[in-house]
Amino acid sequence: MRLTKIIPKIFYEDIKDGLDLFVDGLEFKVVYNEAKLYIIIRDDNLQIHWVG
User: Which of 1, 4, 31, 39 has an alpha carbon within 20 to 30 A of 45's alpha carbon?
Assistant: First the structure.
């Protein structure tokens, strides 16, 4: 059996801390932003749906 998708749970008290890490540090790009939902993506199609 081979895992092709992983859905980890990461918790931040302030979502801006997580966005700083992923967008500024790991070069993800925010492609959708609404109140408490962010979708960020990286060039290799790695996508994160983030609920704050």
Answer: 1
For residue 15, give the nearest of 43, 39, 31 by alpha carbon: 39
Decide if 34 contacts 51 (C-beta within 8 A): no
pTM as predicted:
0.68
Please report whether residue 47 resides in a domain. Answer: yes
Distance CA 28, CA 48 (A): 9
Domain membership of residue 6 (yes or no) is no
Is the pLDDT reported for residue 19 higher than 70?
yes
Contact yes or no for 41/28 (Cβ under 8 A):
yes
